[in-house]
Amino acid sequence: MSESARTTVVVSGAGTGIGRATALRLAAEGRHVTLVGRRRDKLDEVAAHDQRSFLVVDADISTPEGARRVADAVDTADRACVGVVASAGGNAPAASDGSLDAVRDHWRASFDLNVMTAVLLVEALRPDLEAHAGRVVLLSSVSALRGSRTGAYGASKAALHAWMFDLAARLGRSGGTANVVAPGFIPGTEFWAGVSDEVVQNRIAQTLVGRVGNADEIAGLITWLLGPDAGWISAQVISPNGGMVLGR
Ligand SMILES: NC(=O)c1ccc[n+]([C@@H]2O[C@H](COP(=O)([O-])OP(=O)(O)OC[C@H]3O[C@@H](n4cnc5c(N)ncnc54)[C@H](OP(=O)(O)O)[C@@H]3O)[C@@H](O)[C@H]2O)c1
Question: Quick one: pLDDT band at residue 5, thresholds 50, 70, 90?
């Protein structure tokens, strides 16, 4: 078996949105991709594009068991993980009443969804990443740079940035990299299902280029970060946002 046939890039949130677009673009460039998410049908739909390019693992990676299942599946498939794209995340259900218990539950759920899904997945795969100069891309958001107006979402995404610095230092010892990609407004994903035209127009008005972004543009940047020209890009927060936030 050739070296490329024995490696894989693990993409979480791969059944929809940015994760799906990234998985398809990586496969189009000849990479093998391990698709991770909770809904098997969404992952199978992606894998159906080319069964030879994909391994499907349905798992809840906010739990240690789920993250371990991904690492075990990669191992059982006799592949080495050389990259992770942590795209699983989103808005946790809002606090239902004004009680402190509800506030605490909302913040914990947001942390589980946006931080633990990335931390547990990368930690489960870290032996492979350290052995193969692995590349990691964590999906954050402009909300981590300017607030989300919902409190917990932007704050939990911001936690990824400081962790990424430590991860970049650790992976760098063996030539690997870690970076954060913090997109602006990308409708057409489940994240923004049912978004109103008023919100879309408001977000467009916040950009300098006068339009929304799309998942394939974000996938292109992520794929480049995992590719041969980006080996010297590490410990960076890169925000593709159409000029919505300046200087990041
Ligand atoms: N769209 C935007 O405008 C935007 C902007 C900035 C940042 N982002 C970030 O970009 C990332 C991708 O978002 P998206 O726009 O592509 O939204 P999306 O379509 O909702 O994708 C999120 C994915 O995460 C998966 N997921 C959630 N919890 C999981 C868990 N515990 N274990 C495994 N998979 C889980 C979901 O699949 P299952 O439900 O099947 O598990 C889903 O496929 C997110 O981290 C989001 O916060 C999005």
Answer: low
The encoded tokens of residue 209 equal 């280029």
pLDDT in tens, 217-244: 999 999 999 999 999 999 999 999 999 9
Of residues 160, 60, 150, the one with CA closest to residue 114: 160
What is the average per-residue pLDDT within 175-189?
A: 97
Per the listing, tokens 């008005």 go with: 205
Phi, psi at 60, each rounded to 5° = -90, 100
DSSP per-residue letters across 39-107: -HHHHHHHHTT-GGGEEEEE--TTSHHHHHHHHHHHHHTT-EEEEEEE----PPPPPSSS-HHHHHHHH
CB of 185 shorter than 6 A to ligand 1: yes
Question: In the structure encoding, which two tokens stand for residue 135, read together?
Answer: 């590349």
The residue contributing the CA closest to ligand 1 atom 47 is: 90
3-state secondary structure of 3: coil
Instruction: Find all residues with CB under 8 Å of 225, minimum gap 6, and list them.
Output: 135, 137, 177, 179, 181, 233, 238
The pLDDT value recorded for residue 51 is 85
Query: What torsion do the CA atoms of 8, 55, 36, 144 make, to the nearest 10 degrees?
Result: 30
What torsion do the CA atoms of 119, 19, 35, 234 make, to the nearest 10 degrees? -50
Q: In the predicted model, what is the mean pLDDT of residues 154-167?
A: 98
Regarding the beta carbon of 239 and ligand 1, being less than 6 Å apart is answered no
Give the pairing type, strands 177-181 and 54-58. unpaired
Q: Which domains does the chain have, with CATH numbers?
A: 4-193+216-238 (3.40.50.720)
> By CB neighbour count within 10 A (0-12 exposed, 13-18 middle, 19+ buried), where does 153 fall?
buried
User: What's the gap in Å between 4 CA and the centre of ligand 1?
Assistant: 28
